[in-house]
Amino acid sequence: MAVTPQLIKELREMTSAGMMDCKKALEATDGNIEEAVVWLRENGLAKAAKKADRVAAEGVSFAKANDKRAIVFEVNSETDFVSKNDKFMSLIENIGNALLESSALTLEEALEVKLSSGQTIKEACVEATATIGEKIELRRIAAVEGGKVSIYNHANKRISVLLGFEGNINDEDAYNVCMHVAAMAPKYLTESDVPQEFKDNEMHIIKETTDLTGKPENVAEGILKGKLNKKLAEVTLLAQGFVMDEKQTVGKFIESKGATLTKMFRFEVGEGIEKVTTDFAAEVAAQLAGN
């Protein structure tokens, strides 16, 4: 049977495998789509190991909660095309459900958590890599157990927030703080969480860019300290002006509700990963030339 573009499209929709892989599978099975699915699975697992060193900086971040536990996690893919795929999103849902019901607190523990299929998350990601043709991996997880929690998932599936509170803050107010964290991207919860290295680097920049000519030493020190404090307030959640009421800081808002914020996790897909820029047209042309 001739391998037509329609057959390739149909197989790709069934398996989420790459276009060239679908073409190879159909050619190897004389256009039999059921056999092509099996071929992809058998041949894909062997290739998955070869993709281990590739950069996966796209994907999905997601937060979930029940009455005992809340989690936020990130699963990466190599392109944002995959993150819009139904099969990939089904994997995300299964991983989220399994992590929520588990006691995993670290990435190492999370990778060994079993899905409803009986596979571990690590095994499921390897299989997804084989089937989809892109590196798929669980990158990180954070969890809060007990106390008051609030979660937020942005509509683009790329930003998620998990907050842990102590006290009587209500759901709406806690959710508003979550949205503030998503929008303002604070790096730290309190000033005491800011590494000394960060403070030293910022002070160096401030000194290099501030004209203190003719200023008395005590005045100059006051100017430098004021600028550093302003910078620290920008990156520290509790010192930021609250987006819902800029007359008060986030810390004062939470305090006014009779609560304290004890945990803050904000995951944004791909942050901290050095992305590799590729010429997609050249890559496809190279693949076509090799077949």
From TrEMBL:
Pfam families: EF_TS
Annotated segments matching region Involved in Mg(2+) ion dislocation from EF-Tu: 79-82
UniProt xrefs under CDD domains: UBA_EF-Ts (cd14275)
Any one Gene Ontology molecular-function term assigned to this protein's record: translation elongation factor activity
This protein's GO CC annotations: cytoplasm
Location relative to the cell: Cytoplasm
Keyword Protein biosynthesis: yes
Keywords linked to the UniProt accession: Cytoplasm, Elongation factor, Protein biosynthesis
Domain Translation elongation factor EFTs/EF1B dimerisation: 70-271
Function according to Swiss-Prot or TrEMBL: Associates with the EF-Tu.GDP complex and induces the exchange of GDP to GTP. It remains bound to the aminoacyl-tRNA.EF-Tu.GTP complex up to the GTP hydrolysis stage on the ribosome.
Family: Belongs to the EF-Ts family.
Protein name, entry field: Elongation factor Ts
Lineage: Bacteria, Bacillati, Mycoplasmatota, Mollicutes, Entomoplasmatales
Protein's gene: tsf
